[in-house]
Amino acid sequence: MIRIELAKQTRRPRTLLTLGALAAFSVALTIALAASGAGSLERVGDVPLLIAPSHSGFSIPVIALSSTMKFFLPLAVAIFAGESVAGKDGWGSLRYALTRPVSRSRYLFSKLIVALLFSLAAVVLVPLSALVVGTIAFGWHPFTAIDASASTALHTSVITFSPGPALGRLAISTAYVAAGMHSSFALSFLLSTLTTRPFAAVAGGVGLTIVSRVLNADYLPGVAVVNRYMPNNDVDLWQHLFQRPAQTSGMAHFLLLQLAYVAIALSIAWWWFTRKDILT
Amino acid sequence: MGASAPPVLIEGLTKHLRGGVIAVDGLDLVVEPGQVVGLAGPNGAGKSVTLKIMLGLVRPTSGRVELFGEPVRPGAEALGRVGALVDGPGFVPHLTGLENLRLAWKMTRCDERAAGLEEAVALAGLREAIDRRYRTYSHGMRYRLALAQALLGSPDLLLLDEPTTGLDPAHVLEVRHAISECAGRGTTVVLSSHVLTEVEEVCTHAAIMSAGRLVASGEVSELIGEHASLAEAYLSLVGRNGAGPLA
Predict the structure, then answer these.
(1) More confident residue, A78 or A241
(2) B150 phi and psi, to 5 degrees?
(3) For the whole model, what pTM was predicted?
């Protein structure tokens, strides 16, 4: 079942376009930074880290991950999850798949796994392509940044990671961002089982991200009560891994929150899909 | 699952849809092996919903539906003996006709040699176009590919919902010929149609539905009786108000 779904999705123009656009973003980002001289300091995140892109190829994946984690990646993940069931419904192939002697649970599981694989590929593709292009443009050098939160007027806190540790932190950061996409993924997947319109399912996942960003106590202190339950607000905590010492405060809560969203949304999706009438 | 169980057994089937609409109302129907049964009636008579319940796509509100003696539920083993065309074609647009058929067959987890791909494609008249992407197919070609999919693996039971909708006259004749050919090989066929001349021409038996209820059933010749055609017999049974587009 999973192989059949993979065969259908791998050659789908929208799949290739989405992944291609994410890879192209890294290339465009590198070209833009190189064209701008790349010697100036770029501010990354709320930490903030100040990075001079031209010092190391490792700068590009850090900047690329920061730039995409709040909209482009949730959008890509929502596309893969939202299209998974509703897209087939739109083609009409869903009803034929469900007339086969295959349980709906098994069918839904295969959809889930394939959508998940493409979503993970999307998240990994951004830092990976950025690292490749960044290394070509700026070389395989130690990653250097200024930790502005630890710097004063008299002291500049410069952090340097040799390529090995920088790669390790980048891998953990990518895994963290990938985990942080799961709430959008799960909501889009749920909506994909509820509607026959893929766009609505995609919009739901992206909408959750937007609502989460709006109800962010960092910018709107009055919403502090709900801030803890907003699924996208702490997706940028990975940037603290590039401080010395690495800060992990809040990361466990964020990951547990993702787990809660996934458990609730996927349970409802399974419950509904195994009972729904396929009337169209 | 009894060896002598009929291909289709329906008892007291009722389906209520949202908004209080009763799509099927206490339907009883038995289809014996080798019969070609036409579910006839106007649009909204409950034919398509009945077929979808038989395929496990829709859950009945009450009643019993069995295929080859096995109660129908989503993913039932008996569905492996069924070929279906329901609510028109449904394929992956960026794959070729052949790739779509192969993937559809893989869902059955049976050996590809048992699919009879070439035969199904030939019966559907798609040999020359089978390697083209589905999105380039005309309306008629899409229907014929759907028919080819239904014929994969020479199923024991064919469930066809309005199989000639939108086809030009030449392809209507081809599809009817293909159905008759399957029936000639012993395949049991249930097809829904609001075109009563089609039911009269293709089917050995008919079940006439109106407003979700079974109005009459039996051999087509018996139902026609003294009338000139099945359409006239239908009108005498349900009147013009329930007639719909009679051919």
Answers:
(1) A78
(2) -65, -30
(3) 0.88
